[in-house]
Specification:
By secondary structure, the chain is an alpha+beta fold. It has helices spanning 10-13, 15-22, 119-130; strands at residues 36-41, 46-50, 57-65, 70-74, 77-80, 87-89, 95-99, 105-113.
């Protein structure tokens, strides 16, 4: 029987990315986040229109692998992804994504606090959401 290698977390597999993300004002709320993930959208797939629940945070999308014909809509604004160009938005506004290419698309997604919130407001929101 072969021994399976230990699973590596993001901090071990992608140290520069993990360091950069952890320098952002992530929404650290016990039981809720921070949320940091990779989103793979298969060739020809679509993420239907949807909205988030809280406007106390902003969602950051960092496109990593983006073939042509990968598009994103937030509200009335539609744009094509550009590798390495960070896109930050309020996800309480309806948004959707589609991949009309023949290749997969990969985006790093993470949440940050809205910059207009004070440290006290962040602490109060953290306490409220943690209870």
């Amino acid at each position: 029987m072969r021994e399976r290698p230990a699973r590596r977390g993001a901090g071990q597999a992608l140290p520069a990315t993990w360091t950069a993300v952890n320098e952002a004002p992530l929404t650290r709320v016990p039981g809720w986040g921070p949320t940091v993930m990779f989103s793979l959208l298969k060739a020809g797939a679509r993420i239907e229109p949807h909205t988030g629940m809280f406007n106390t945070r902003l969602v950051c999308h960092l496109p990593l692998i983006v073939p042509p014909k990968c598009t994103f809509r937030v509200g009335n604004e539609v744009r094509e992804w550009r590798e390495g160009k960070l896109f930050i938005f309020d996800d309480t506004i309806e948004h959707e994504a589609w991949n009309d290419s023949s290749e997969d698309r990969v985006v790093l997604i993470f949440d940050i606090w809205r910059p207009e919130l004070s440290a006290r407001e962040r602490d109060e929101l953290t306490a409220l959401l943690s209870s």
